[in-house]
Write a structure and sequence with these properties.
single chain; about 220 residues; mainly alpha; globular
Length: about 220
């Protein structure tokens, strides 16, 4: 093979290699984008794990002190979060309907709740985003506060099934506490049961009033 033929052969090989690389680039780009997304999610979860453990320790210590002669006037635990989830640099899409619907149905059936009510609360609380964290530290689909999650024995507040199940259990407790009155139970879910009892009804807090009205408006008319 002459030098000219060798150069022609080399050029053809390089051209073929470039063509193959170009043909594979969309798949490769998609793979790299997916890997980068997974890496960001893992980084965010790792960053959140430390505050979660600190909050659990703080709540446990406060309980131990209150029952075991702790120092009077002890300062309450520090806020669980000072940054909401977007501030951690991770965006979270709503849970796909194909995953969301069975979880809602199972949790509602387990607690004897109306699945429409549970869905409406999850939508209002998080927009069906399982990684949602409010500025006050409420977590997951049903926006469980850290102390509430601890009391309910939640191991992973960002697990959709566990969060929905625990939120459904809490909602069932509130319905029982307020005689099956949905509006009062929703007011208690948003503002706390003590505020409802003190007010003798839905607390006259603009946020809570909107919260109750918007959820009730999404429920089917009986």
């Amino acid at each position: 093979m002459s030098a000219r033929q060798k150069l022609a052969w080399l050029g053809w090989c390089l051209g073929q290699a470039a063509w193959v690389a170009a043909a594979q680039s969309p798949q490769e780009a998609a793979r790299q984008a997916m890997e980068a997304s997974i890496a960001r999610q893992r980084q965010a979860v790792a960053a959140m794990q430390i505050p979660i453990e600190r909050q659990r320790a703080a709540v446990a210590a406060a309980r131990a002190d209150s029952g075991g002669g702790g120092a009077a006037g002890q300062a309450p635990p520090a806020p669980f979060f000072t940054l909401s989830w977007p501030a951690l640099g991770v965006e979270c899409d709503p849970l796909p309907e194909i995953e969301l619907t069975p979880l809602i149905q199972q949790a509602a059936q387990r607690e004897g709740l109306d699945a429409n009510l549970l869905r409406a609360v999850a939508r209002q609380e998080s927009g069906f985003r399982s990684c949602a964290v409010s500025p006050k530290g409420a977590m997951g689909l049903m926006q469980l506060m850290p102390a509430t999650a601890l009391e309910l024995g939640v191991r992973d507040p960002f697990d959709p099934a566990e969060n929905l199940s625990s939120g459904a259990h809490l909602l069932k407790q509130l319905l029982a506490r307020f005689g099956g009155d949905t509006a009062l139970a929703l007011g208690a879910y948003n503002a706390g049961p003590n505020r409802v009892e003190e007010s003798g009804g839905v607390p006259q807090i603009p946020e809570t009033i909107r919260y109750v009205q918007q959820i009730l408006s999404r429920l089917p008319i009986p």
